[in-house]
Amino acid sequence: MANKEVILEELYRRQGSFVSGGELAKLLGVSRAAVWKSILSLKEEGYPIRSSKKRGYVLAKRPSTPLSFEVKWGLNTEVIGREVVYFDTIGSTNDIAKEMAEKGAIEGLVVIAGRQTKGRGRLDRSWVSQRGGLYLTILLRPKIDPQHITRLTLMAGLAALRTVASYGLKASIKWVNDVRVSGRKVCGILTEVSGSAEVLDYAVVGIGLNVNNSASRFPVDVRGMATSLRDELGEGVSLVEVVKRLLMEFDEQYRRMKADGFSDIITEWRASCDTIGKRVRVVGISEAFEGTAVGVDEEGALMVESDGAVKKVTAGDVIYLE
Ligand code: BTN
Question: Measured from the CA of 120, which atom of ligand 1 is nearest?
C-alpha cells in the first residue's frame, strides 16, 4: 500500500480521534516531514484532514466524493479499479484515460471526474456533465479481435443496468447503449479504441450515469428524455457506493467474458433490451429507414426487418415509433 493509503487507513481506524505525526512516521518507517508531505497531498486531493501541532492529524468524516481511496476501500474486484484517479473538474474522462493508456497505464485503471467541461457522447454529441452525476472511464487491454469491440459496450451496459437495478429501479437497455428507467435515459456509454484492424492496443469505456444531478437542470432539448437515480428514487444516493457497485458489476462481467466467452452475456443483455420487438426508425450513417427490430446478433448489431428484408444496423440512432 502507498504511504497515503496507510495514513488514511489509520485515520479511519481512529474514527475521528487524533493520531500524531510521530506515530504515523513510525508506522510507515519514514520521517515526520514525509508524513506531512503525504498529508498535504491528501488535503489537495480533497480529504478534510485537520492538523494540530500538539495532537497530530484527524479526519472527521469520510468524504462523499469518489476519491481514489474511497473507491478502492473494500472494492472486491480482480482487475477493474486496480488504479483509480479522481479529478474534480476535467474535459473528458475518456481523454485522460487515453492519455494515461498511451503512457502505459495498467488495465483496470479508472478515471473519475466530479464534472466534465467537454463530456462527449456517441455520434459526436456532447454529454451533459454537471456536478452530482457520475463520469468515469475504464481502461481495458483485452486480448480480443478488434471486430468484437462492441461486446465491451454491451458488457458495460449490462453492468450499468445491474447497478441501477440494485437500487430497486426497473431498468432496461435501448439499443445500443442507453440504460433507461421509466422510458428515460439514465446512463450512456462511449467506447473508444486504439490499435490496428488486427490488434487492439487498448479500449476506454466511458460511462456517464445520472446519479444526484437532476434532469430538471438539463438543457431543454434533452431534459424530457433524461432522468437520474435521484429523480427516480426521490432522494440522493452515495456516489462512492454507486461507483463501487458499478466497478464490481463491470469486473464480474469482464471476468465472465474472459472465462466463458460472450454467449451468456448477450443472452442476459437481450433479455434486458426493450428495443427488440418495437417499431423503430433507424437513422444510420448513410441511410434512414423504418422497420421492426427483430433481434441483436452476437456482435451487438441490431437486426431490423424492413420491406420484407432484414437489415443489420451496426451504428446510428434508433427512435421508437410506438
Ligand atoms: C452516449 O450515450 O452518447 C454516451 C455518453 C458517454 C458519456 C461518458 S461520461 C464519462 C465519459 N467521458 C466522456 O466524455 N464521455 C463518457
Answer: 14
Is the whole-model pTM more than 0.85?
Answer: yes
- Distance, in Å, from the CA atom of 131 to the CA atom of 227, rounded to the nearest integer, reads 15
Residue 1 confidence (pLDDT) above 80: no
The reported pLDDT for the residue numbered 87 is 95
Most confident among 62-66, 240-244, 318-322 (mean pLDDT): 240-244
- Calculate how far, in angstroms, residue 313's C-alpha sits from the geometric centre of ligand 1: 21
Burial of residue 31, with CB atoms counted within 10 A of its CB: 0-12 exposed, 13-18 middle, 19 or more buried: exposed
The answer to whether 186 and 212 are in contact (CB under 8 A) is no
Of all residues in the chain, what percent carry a pLDDT higher than 90? Answer: 85
Q: Which atom of ligand 1 is nearest to the CA of 185?
A: 2
For the cut 80, the answer to whether the pLDDT of residue 100 exceeds it is: yes
Q: What is the mean pLDDT of the chain?
A: 94
Q: Widest CA span of the chain, in angstroms?
A: 82
User: What's residue 60's pLDDT?
Assistant: 79
Give distance in angstroms: CA of 51 to centre of ligand 1: 39
Closest ligand 1 atom number to CA of residue 208: 9
In sequence order, the 6+-apart residues with CB closer than 8 A to the CB of 22 are: 32, 56
Dihedral, CA atoms, 51, 70, 132, 124, nearest 10 degrees?
130
C-alpha cell at 15: 474514527
189 Cα–ligand 1 center, Å = 5
Q: Which three cell numbers stand for residue 63?
A: 468524504
